[in-house]
Amino acid sequence: MKRILIVAAVLLSLVLVSCGGAGGASNTINVTMTDFQFQPSQFTVPAGQEIAFSSTNSGAVVHNFVIMKLGTTAGEMFDEEDIPNVYWEVELLPGGSTDTSFTAPSEPGDYEVVCRTEGHIVSGMTAKLTVVPAE
Ligand SMILES: [Cu+2]
Question: Is residue 28 within 8 Å of 54, Cβ to Cβ?
């Protein structure tokens, strides 16, 4: 009897953990760009849905929020050959801000986010966009 209870408790915790993963998705991204970071640097959105995007550049130089297509990476430096791999991007001048939106990719997975301003990737200006199946 005791063993059955333990098995039930383990199964229940597994269910709770998996629900927590999918439930973390949000239709809103609110990100601050600094010299040289995205804050926060991890986002989870539902596949194929409209995402409200708000951002402020509180740094002293131009920053970008560039979502790379699934399975691609800009590597250590964003250059010409990376342009076809851009899924969506927005550029903000120093002190600038934006309220816009984009449609989340339809394919679940981890997407790389970078700032394409020269030297910013190696300075640590990267983030991760996790796309999960829409409920
Ligand atoms: Cu930047």
Answer: yes
Task: Note the pLDDT of residue 134.
Answer: 92
pLDDT score, position 4: 54
CA-CA distance, 130 to 2, in Å (whole number)?
Answer: 39
Question: What's the gap in Å between 111 CA and the centre of ligand 1?
Answer: 18
Measured in Å, residue 102 CA sits from the centre of ligand 1 at: 20
Distance CA 56, CA 10 (A): 43
β-bridge pairing 42-46 and 109-114: unpaired
Q: CA–CA separation, 46 vs 113, rounded Å?
A: 16
- For tokens 């194929």, name the residue: 48
Its pTM stands at: 0.83
C-alpha 54 – ligand 1 centre gap (Å): 16
